[in-house]
Amino acid sequence: MDHAQVRAFAAGMLGEPVSDVEVLAGGSYNESYRIKSGASGWYVLRLAPADHRQFSSERHLMRNEFLGRAFLPHLADLIPRIVAADFSHRELDRDMMMTRWVTGTTGGNYLRTASPEQARSLWRLMGQTLKQFHRIQGTTYGRLIEPWGARWSEAVSTRLSKQINDLASIGAPHDDLARLQTAIAEQTKALDDVPCRLTHGDLIPNNLVVAAMPDGEPRIVALLDIDRLMWADPWSDWSIASTARSKSLPSQAFWEGYGQPPDDSAASLRQSIYHALALVEARLERARRFQTERVDTLVGQSAHALAEIG
After folding, report:
1. Do 25 and 72 belong together in one domain?
2. Closest by alpha carbon to 277, among 254, 247, 301?
3. Considering 41, 67, 100, which residue would you say is the last residue of a domain?
4. At what angle do helices 178-186 and 152-169 cross, to 10 degrees?
5. pLDDT confidence band for 216 (50 / 70 / 90)
6. Of 100, 115, 130, which closes a domain?
7. Cα separations in angstroms, 84 against 43, 98, 100, 105, 167
8. Which domain holds residue 37?
9. Same domain, residue pair 75 and 13
10. How many domains does the chain have?
11. Which pLDDT tens digit goes with each residue over 94-109?
C-alpha cells in the first residue's frame, strides 16, 4: 500500500489530518506504519494480511488481540492504547488497528549495548512479566477467538494439524510431523494434566519497548504484539518452550524472574513435546519468509526433538 493510501485510511480512523507516514520495519506478519497527526501526535497503524493470505493456524490474530485486552487490566499501563480498530472490511479487505505510539527502544536494541548485568535485569523482568499472564485462568484451550478443545491434548492436536496443513499449502516440508501427531495422541494423559492459563505466545525482546533508567537499568514500558494470546499450559508458552533447555545466562535470569520450572518426569515429557512444537512454529515462520535453508535446518532439529520423545 502506498503512503497516500495509508495517509487516507489513517486520517479516516483518526478523524483528523495526517501529516507524516513512516514504514515500521521488523515485523513479519502485519504491515505497520508510524503515523503523525499534527493535532495529537504519533500513532501506529497495523494492517493484517488479507483473510485469503492468512494461515489457518493464524486466523484473525488482530481480533484475538482485541479480545485479549479485556483479560489484562493489570497490565493496561504496558499495552499501547487502542485508538481505533476496524474489522468490517468496508474500506479495505484487511483488519486494521491503530494504537498510540510508545517512546523507547525495543528490548533487542537495548540488549545490543547493555552490560551483562543490565541484560540479566531485562531477562529477569521478562520472566516476571510472563508470570503475570500465566496467573490468569481459563476454561477452554485455544485462541481466544477460536477455542480448540476442552482438553489440552485436543487443542495441541488441532493446532498442529492446522500448522501441517499450512506448511503443505505453501509446499514446505511437513511429512515428518506425522510422528509428532502420533506422539501427541499417545501422551494425552500427560498433556491433559495441566492448568489452563493465558499465554502470551511471543514474548521476546523485540516485542518489548524498553526505557533505560538513569543508572542504565531497563524498565519495560510497553508490550507489543500480544495477538498470539492463547489459553494453554503455561509451560508451552514460546518464551519457555524456547529457553527451558538453555543453560545460558539470559535463560537463567529469565527463570530468576519467573520461578523455576517443574522437573518431574511428566513435565520433562511435556517439555520435549513443546520443544518439538516450537520448532514447527519456527518452521512455519521461516517458510512464510521463503527462507529455505532455515526451514531445512529446522527439519533436522525436529528429527532430534522427535527422537527424544520416542
Report:
1. yes
2. 301
3. 100
4. 170
5. confident
6. 100
7. 10, 5, 10, 24, 33
8. 3-100
9. yes
10. 2
11. 999 999 999 999 999 9
Nine-digit cell string for 5: 493510501
Q: Residues, the chain, total?
A: 310
Question: Among all chains, which residue has been given the C-alpha cell 510422528?
Answer: 179
pLDDT in tens, 277-309: 999 999 999 999 999 999 999 999 999 999 988
What is the rounded distance in angstroms from the CA atom of residue 262 to the CA atom of residue 219?
Answer: 28
